[in-house]
Amino acid sequence: MPSTPDAHACIVARPLRPDDAPAVFELTAAAELHDSGRVLVELDDILGDWARPSYHQPSQSVGLFEGARLVGYAEVDRQRLEGYVDPARRGRGFGTRLVTWGVETAKKLGYERLGQSLPVTNTAAIELLRSHGSDVLYTSWILELPAGATITDTALPPDHRLRCFDSAQDARDVFQTIEDAFNEWPNRETSTFADWEAATLARADFEPWQITVAVEDVGGVDRVVGACKVTATDSQGWVDSIAVRRDARGQGLGRALLAGAFAAAREHGATTARLNTDSRTGALGLYEHVGMVVVETFEHHAIRLG
Predict the structure, then answer these.
(1) What distance in Å separates the CA atoms of residue 9 and residue 248, rounded to the nearest whole number?
(2) 132-150: per-residue pLDDT in tens?
(3) Global pTM?
(4) Distance CA 150, CA 168 (A)
(5) Is residue 6 pLDDT above 50, yes or no?
(6) For residue 290, what pLDDT band results from cuts at 50, 70 and 90?
(7) What pLDDT score was predicted for residue 7?
């Protein structure tokens, strides 16, 4: 989108640039705090996403600027819309403008739908997407393992063990294990190793301890059968992804990976741990069974295109 003045509010719209990352982080954090009372985003999340080879910032993003101040932005990627408006600038039509831009951009990219996950408490944003014809595609939840709680460890199957990630030998197997498991979900966009590597291993804050790997000894060679990635920021641990190969499920490996990942997060300063799951996975009951509790509920509202 070329830089153009907005007559009604002296707004300039232009694609985001790499040096906009701090402003995008600050605006997103302010919006999350306003809408749900907690901040989930990290600056490295934004930098990692922007580093993916498949992401083309000039054609997949727009920022709304009032002078030098970013007052709203949106990105269209993998049939998802991520858009936020500065809470202090809402009610001026910026959200409608961003959604309209998102729909037009998604159509140019050939997407079948465009959706955003929103807290169920953010009724204004939900109504905005509904006014563009959205339906709820799925529900998601943030669950927390409260401070002081632990997940009871389970015995692993014979010839199986958990160990720390080794990038030299595990990277592609871990990616494929996660990708195959996530691709079982309906309406899920596939990813590539290059994108996963850029958004995960190439992050400035990545350390090998963050990935716990479940392996099976096959003739003296480790075969990756599961993986769990966790981070620890301040006192909060966060599970970014967990997956077990289809042919290795039902043996307690998922529970063992969670226990191992949460233990690693505690060793690095976390006192509580959280993760996100949604209704496509069927895993909510598992997480509640190990002692996690729902602390926030989201709905993914999708606009059908074409």
Answers:
(1) 57
(2) 999 999 999 999 998 888 8
(3) 0.88
(4) 31
(5) no
(6) confident
(7) 43
